[in-house]
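Team,

Forwarding the record for the chain on the shared tracking sheet. I've put the sequence and predicted structure together so nobody has to dig through attachments.
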Amino acid sequence: MDRIEDAWRAQGAPTADSLAPGLTADELDAYEAELGYPLPAELRRWWGRHDGTTGGVWSGSPSAVGVGQWHLMSLGEALKWRADLMAENDPPEFPEDADVWEGQWAPWWLPIVHYDGAVLFLDLKAATADGDAPVHLWAKIPDDVFSVRFASLGDLVDRWSRALEEGYFRWSAETAEWIARDGLPLDVLRLI
């Protein structure tokens, strides 16, 4: 988190200064009980460091990650998003066989960032003993939710940080938005 916060500040973006205070261990425990699945260590660190942004997930530029159009979510917002997606499940049960999946949201999937109906989420059932969980994409048309996009949240944040540090995305104070450089390499395009 230090690296990405430093990258935001170096570019003059409002994100770092808009981070909401982190959750306490007791608050994380309460959310974990509501979730019904253990929060991997990396998620406890993530939301323990910041709980989204002070303006919330819909605050625009202050909640923008800067790499692509992703916006930070608080843990409460993530649980609400998850509940809303689960309420749309038809049929309501998640299939045991992925080959017969019909677009249901799994209860063990937890969003971390969103953009316009798409979310990056962690598969809590696949969390390792080290506290990492793979990151997947629920696109506007969720047709490839089972492919692992990033090995862990730490891997994703590291790649976001590197993309900002290497200048693939820059903050424009004039237009109050992130601007992508032309001709992004494939490994950077995977981030957006």
